[in-house]
Amino acid sequence: MPERSSNQPPLPDFRTAITTGLAPLSPEFGPADEALFREAWNIARDRHGKEITFYLPGMIRFHGFRGRYPALSITGNRCELQCLHCAGTLLQPMLKVDEPEELLRRGRLLAANGNHGILLTGGSDRNGELPWKRYLDVISSLGRETTLHLSAHTGFPDLRTAKALKAAGIRQALLDVMGDEKAATEVYRLPGLHKVIEAIEAVKTSGIAWIPHIVAGLYFGRIDSEYRALEIIRRYHPTAVVIVVLSPLKGTAMSAVKPPAPLAIARLIASARLLMPDVPIALGCERPRNREGTSLECLALRAGITRMAVWSEEAVEEALALGLRPRFQATCCSVDYRTAFSSPDPHPSISVGRNPAHITS
Fold first, then answer.
1. Mean pLDDT, range 74-83, rounded to an integer
2. In whole angstroms, what is the distance from residue 272 CA to residue 230 CA?
3. Vertex 302: Cα angle to 313 and 175 (nearest 5)
4. Bond prior to 24 in cis (omega within 30° of 0)
5. C-alpha pair distances (Å), 111 with each of 61, 95, 114, 116
6. pLDDT in tens, 261-313
7. Band of the pLDDT at 361, cuts 50, 70, 90?
8. 69 close to 111: Cβ distance less than 8 angstroms
9. 3-state secondary structure of 218
10. Which residues contact 171 (CB under 8 A, 6 or more apart)?
11. What is the pLDDT of residues 216-255, one digit of tens each?
């Protein structure tokens, strides 16, 4: 491990949240966790510095700050695959189109209204694929006519489709990765894990930036194959990694399932940091929004994330107290920070110059 440079933030106290009311972070936090998190913290600071980027995706409004990267479903509310953890419910709040001409009209309007980009997504067929072919010409037109940064939650495409998306101007492919046959066939209802591996290889061969997503607690709330998913991801050299958390969505087979504990998720994040030291890691937008969710945010900062979507005010306070430098961007957390997409600090009442507390050297 490289020696810590003098301009890095001091090591935090990993047992206690600095934010009022969140101490201890987890009563189960033991010596092995202390060692894991300290190593992850050191790597993150050595490889990525003090910056932490907070993202507001979609068109969410938060503290007077609006996301400028809406998700748009190309299948309306329809999804044939019906994965057990989603069953199409995540499509409901999205913008929707059913025809290519409607996508072109919507895209032009979104660009004219100052949006930075679009996340194209939709429901899958029973083979895990989306009807990209009928939209390729329109996607290409949007790429030529506007400055929109185009990402796609691709489903599980074959090589021909991945190359066509790249040629049409898709900059990023967001693709869910699970670690075993059980998760692939029982939860995602795919033909097998081979479908996922083939899709990863197709995206990588196409040259699109690849942003894998892992759902922590995917198999009925248990951390099961997620560590094997990390190993798969590492082999294919991702552009960034996003970790989200199972949400017990109403109307799904997992509506009564309890998500994993914050410490279990943070251990997964820390392990990802050790496995992929140079890769940006994000705590994504789909996760619990409660006291446990805030604890997860505080733990994730210590576990080596460099990005967080849809943050709490406590997370910003915690980042500052840990000696990190928050910055803000109104896009999906898959998008690298850039000045053109940045937004003002929506928390002017939180002093950027506050003195770090609960820090140990």
1. 93
2. 7
3. 85
4. yes
5. 18, 14, 5, 7
6. 999 999 999 999 999 999 999 999 999 889 899 999 999 999 999 999 999 99
7. very low
8. no
9. coil
10. 149, 150, 151, 208, 209
11. 999 999 998 999 999 999 999 999 999 999 999 998 999 9
Q: Please, what is the average pLDDT of the chain?
A: 90
Max Cα distance, the chain (Å): 59
Q: Specify the pTM.
A: 0.91
What is the distance between the alpha carbons of residues 83 and 74, in angstroms, rounded to a whole number? Answer: 18
* Rounded-to-integer distance, Cα 52 and Cα 247, Å: 25
Structural domains of the chain, ranges and CATH numbers in brackets: 31-341 (3.20.20.70)
- Describe the chain by its helix, strand, coil percentages, rounded to 5: 35, 15, 45
What are the φ and ψ backbone dihedral angles of 346, each rounded to 5 degrees?
A: -80, 5
Q: Evaluate if residue 58 carries a pLDDT over 90.
A: no
Containing H/E element for 118?
strand 117-121
Q: Which of 110, 99, 109 is nearest to 69 (CA)?
A: 110
- Alpha helices by DSSP H, the chain: 31-48, 100-112, 136-145, 159-168, 181-182, 193-206, 226-235, 262-275, 291-303, 313-321
**111 close to 148: Cβ distance less than 8 angstroms:** yes
Sequence-distant (6+) residues with CB within 8 A of 146 are 107, 108, 111
- Any residues with CB less than 8 A from the CB of 156 and at least 6 apart, and which? 124, 127, 128, 129, 175, 190, 195, 196, 198, 199
The residue to which tokens 């599980």 are assigned: 156
**Within a 10 A sphere around the Cβ of 72, how many other Cβ atoms?**
19
